[in-house]
Amino acid sequence: MARVALVTGGTRGIGAAISKALKAAGRSVVASYHGNDAAATAFHAETAIPVRRFDAGSYAESEAAVKAIAAEFGAVEILVNNAGITRDGTLAKMSREMWDAVIDTNLGSCFNLCKATFEGMRAAKFGRVVNIGSINGQAGQYGQVNYAAAKSGIHGFTKALAQEGARFGITVNAIAPGYVDTEMVRAVPADVLQKIVARIPMGRLGHAEDIARGVAFLTADDADFITGSTLSINGGQHMY
Length: 240
Ligand code: CAA
Prior knowledge:
The protein has helices at residues 13-24, 37-47, 59-73, 96-124, 135-139, 145-165, 183-186, 190-198, 208-219; strands spanning 4-7, 28-33, 51-53, 76-81, 127-132, 170-177, 230-233. It is of the alpha/beta class.
């Protein structure tokens, strides 16, 4: 039977490409989303991948959603923590709400979803977790103390959980995307983005599929000796 894969934020941007790549790899994919019903409906119409709406930043909603998904499709054995938001601004202009929103959605969601799925993976003696970090968690970014802290936290979270999962056949890895051509990156002021692209040795923004390829690789059944690693996919912008 196909293994069940849950991709948070899996109906748009990088997440949508990940959902499609895992489906192409023969997984039974469920894509979650939080706000954008129209995009989720369009994604489902295009791919036939089931979509479920919940707030990955909420512990209770994540727990309930994973239970419902397990009852309907089977226990989640592949988890991609991709859900993420930005609330950019310099520290001087950043409110406590901007900080909390980014920490809860980007980092808290990893805790929430791993808590809800890890026990099942342990019982199955198989699990694949991929957490989507960021180049800005590795290198920092002007105007992103919240986002950089959350993404940097994801990289630490990954290495710690990898140690806990290893003896149960569970691998936990991170991918650190660079600047990828998505709505999130297109929201960066044009002049700022131009300067960023000028610093990418490959001379272009990434494609969502560039990241999805990495997730398919790390979640393969035979990728069982790769754990605790961070795969940077950034066109050479930051070599870490
Ligand atoms: N280094 C040093 N100084 C910088 C700077 C930088 N990287 N960027 C801007 N500044 C300076 C400006 O030159 C300006 O200085 P002057 O006033 O002396 O001219 C000053 O900072 C502007 O400061 P403000 O606080 O007034 O700026 P602002 O509030 O208008 O906007 C910002 C600041 C929100 C950070 C805006 O520059 C911005 O959106 N930057 C892009 C942030 C970014 O890259 N976000 C990534 C989003 S995509 C993503 O996160 C995905 C992923 O994982 C890669």
